[in-house]
Design goal:
The structure is a single chain. The protein is an all-alpha fold. It has a domain at 3-20 and 68-119. It has helices spanning 3-25, 39-62, 69-91, 97-119. The mean pLDDT is 86.
Amino acid sequence: MNPLLKFSVITILFYAGTYIYLKRKFNIKTCGFYTRTNKIYKYGETFLLILILIVGGIALFRYSVPIEPPYWYTIPFMLICIFRAFMEWKFDKDAKKYILSLLEFAFLLILLFGLIHLYSP
């Protein structure tokens, strides 16, 4: 079996189990898709997404910057997870959703290190 496939399946299963455990332990209520708490959060996240797309597009197509695939795939999503966790912690501490956002960040960090390890010669 492919080591990348093994790593991905194990990591996703670990993430899903931890997500369910933390949701039950801290009694975190989630409703459907992602909801934002205020306008600063909404516009900040939109601005961050657009900025990531513009900077990444310019870096790849205009200047031909050789960005390694694991970095390009995971670092922008890690920035968004950190921003979400901070905004949820700052404006909605009672809901405890920031714990799940930090879990997403940790999952992406593990995924980044695993991909770097599996991609390196």
